[in-house]
Each structure stands twice: as C-alpha cells, then as structure tokens.
Design goal:
The chain is of the alpha+beta class. The chain has 11 helices and 20 strands. Among the domains are: about 80 residues, PDZ domain (Pdz3 Domain); about 190 residues, 2-enoyl-CoA Hydratase, Chain A, domain 1. The N and C termini lie far apart (about 45 Å).
Length: about 400
C-alpha cells in the first residue's frame, strides 16, 4: 500500500465488534446509521416557535470580525450551516445530529429504503474501520467475491478508509449500469473488484418457511413494516405454522410504531416500554389489544451486536414477558429515543429526547440485551455460509 497504515484484525465476531459512530449502512439496502433512529413520542410537544433566552451576540461578534478581516470570499449560507452543525455537535451526543437539506433528503431516502442502485453491501464501523458486515444475495458484491470482514479502503482509487459509513455508501451508489471499483483490505492485503451497479430490491421484511417453522427476517422497521408483518402472520394458521424464528440480526431500528405493531402479535395490550425524559416526564407505551395471534406460539429471537434501538425494544419486551427465547450475541445497547424535527429550510434535526426502558424497567443504553442462549457467529462463518445461530434456533 502507498499509505502506511497498520491494518488491525482484532475481532472476528460480527456481533461483539465495537461500533463507534454508526451501526450499519447498506449500499443499495440500508440498516444502520440511518435505521437506528426511533421517532419518539415527544415530537408533538416540540413544534412551533420557541423563544430562546440565550444571548447570541458573541456569534455576531465572530462573524463581524470574519467579514472585515478574512482574506477570501465568505459564503454566508455555509457559515450559517456550519454554525448550526457546530451547535449540535457541541452537545457531544452521538445520536443528536443536524442534517442540512441535502443530507436530510438522503436520510429519509435511506430510512425508507429509497437508495437507488448499488452493489449490495451492508457495512459498519468495526475496530476503527468501516468493514463489510454482509453481502446481499444475487447482488454485484457477492458475485464479485467481496467478503464479510473486508475493510473498505478505496473507491475508484480514492482512499476512503477514514470516511464514515454514510460517506462511503454514497460513493458506492450511482446510476444503474455504471461501474465502480472497490478496493478492500483482507488479511493485510489489498484486493480490488470491478463491479457494475444494479438496482437493489430493498424490502424491510420477508418470511421463509421450514416445514412448520416460519422464519421472519426484519431488515429495518420501516413505516409500513409492522403492517407487513401482521399480514404475514395472518397466514400462519392456514399454513400450519407452530414455531417462529424472528431474525433481528443487523436490524438497527427505525420507526418505533412499527415495533409496536410487531409486538402486538405477541403482547395483548401489555406495556411495551417506558420513555423517561428530563423535560417531558415518563410516557408508557403499550401494544393494541386483540391482535396477539402469536402469543402462544413458540418463538425464538435472533440478535447480534448490530441489533439496536427499536429492535432492542422488541427483543427486550419479548424477553421480559417470557414470550420468546433470545439467541445470539449481546445487542448494541441503544436505549435512547430520537425525535425528528423538520426545519424551515429543508434541514432536519434528530434530537435525543428520552431514554427508554423495557417493561421490567431495564435500561439497555450502553448495556444491550443479553441473550438467553449466547451463540457467536464469526465473519468466517458468514463467508462460508455457516449460521450457528440459526442452527441453534432451529434446534430449540
């Protein structure tokens, strides 16, 4: 390599790897940084104009000095945009972010899976590098030979190893039929792949059947995911389904309302979680009654280190009520609620407004959900198409 970088291969477990700034990001299908956002219940209370008691004159003073002394052109729009971002970043909260109009549009596209064409790579920050977490079936990356655990080093010969998952994802996306060169580092060696971007079918949930077992895989909690799961479940009786495996691995969250719809299949009007807020007190959320058609069906939930946010709400509630056995690796531990606020210029603020707690009043933030049965799945397992976690779930 031209640049002297000490590529460290520390951890091999997909679930236990450390996640710093993003949970996951998918090229062509999105799971992570943009899907670990819960739309909180406090948004209605925070609308409208709010008068600030802060004296902003010191900011005016800084700009006045720049305007008369800076040896160059000043873009007022960029300065204002930077000030907004700096204000939010100064809070030091990973999950509270400011997105300008362009990034806001990308965020909502990602949240709903509208990301155009890509190469079918799910990735996330692991051990200091953005790595491939999974390649999607029947997509360019898997066909080319990209493997889980690969460090993303260059795109079209431009070094991106120090960039965020979101920035890398944006570079890998493009028009259908266009080519992209991806260079990864595997076992300390550079490997390059030439791929042609393809449109990705970005479903949020799908089901497979193994005799009398239904395997429900949730990619993310989209706005209509809960309704889709309820429709899937309504067909189980006619299909003779008496066992369920709910796969939440790699699911970084999404709309909490979708998790509420999902849990209503097992919890009949019972408490789902409690939000505790410094400014707005405590709010308890329950599922609706009359839809718990799966409450007596044997259920296994699969989780890993990329299971986060709304997924942890679902897994935690099912575990607390004894409705499911949790199998896999400890979850990420994102126990805080974000609310989305659309600003007048097309920008969006994503603000941490509360902490959430499971029905048994467990705080998961920074701790995660500990599985009832711990089973590790390594990058080597993934690349060799082995799934000891799924195997254990079927055994159970």
């Amino acid at each position: 390599m031209n640049k002297k970088i000490e590529w460290k291969e520390k951890k091999t477990s997909l679930g236990n790897a450390v996640i710093i700034s993003a949970i996951t990001a998918i090229v062509g299908i999105v799971i992570g940084a943009n899907w670990n956002n819960i739309v909180g219940n406090f948004s209605p209370y925070l609308g409208g104009n709010v008068k600030s008691s802060v004296d902003w004159s010191s900011l005016d003073e800084v700009y006045d000095r720049l305007e008369v002394a800076y040896n160059g052109e000043i873009s007022v729009d960029k300065v204002i945009d930077g000030a907004k971002k700096g204000m939010v970043d100064a809070l030091g909260d990973t999950y509270t972010t400011y997105m300008n109009a362009e990034k806001s549009a990308d965020f909502y596209d990602d949240l709903h899976g509208n990301v155009g064409s890509g190469v079918g790579v799910e990735m996330g920050l692991r051990d200091g590098y953005v790595r491939v977490l999974r390649t999607l079936p029947d997509n360019p990356a898997r066909a080319a030979g990209v493997l889980a655990g690969d460090i993303i080093y260059k795109i079209d010969d431009e070094e991106v190893w120090s960039s965020s998952s979101e920035e890398i994802a944006k570079k890998l996306r493009g028009e259908t039929g266009t080519k992209v060169k991806l260079t990864v580092v595997r076992s300390g060696k550079e490997i390059s792949f030439e791929m042609t971007r393809e449109e990705i079918n970005n479903v949020s949930v799908y089901v497979e059947y193994d005799n009398s077992t239904a395997i429900i895989t949730l990619i993310r909690f989209d706005s209509d995911t809960g309704v889709k799961v309820q429709k899937i479940a309504s067909e189980f009786k006619n299909k003779g389904i008496n066992k369920i495996i709910l796969d939440l691995r790699g699911n970084g969250g999404g709309y909490v309302s979708a998790a509420q719809d999902l849990l209503a299949l097992w919890l009949d009007g019972e408490k789902m979680y409690t939000q505790k807020s410094l400014h707005f007190g405590n709010v308890t959320t329950s599922t609706v009654s009359g839809k718990a058609i799966l409450k007596d069906i044997k259920t296994i939930v699969l989780v890993n280190g990329s299971t986060a946010s709304a997924s942890e709400i679902a897994a935690g509630a099912l575990q607390d009520y004894g409705k499911a056995t949790i199998v896999g690796e400890k979850t990420y531990g994102k126990g805080v609620v974000q609310s989305l606020f659309n600003l007048s210029d097309g920008a969006t603020l994503k603000i941490t407004t509360a902490d959430w707690y499971t029905p048994e009043d467990r705080s998961i933030n920074g701790e995660g959900i500990t599985p009832d049965i711990e089973v590790e799945r390594s990058y080597e397992d993934i690349n060799k198409m082995r799934d000891p976690q799924m195997k254990k779930a079927k055994e159970l």
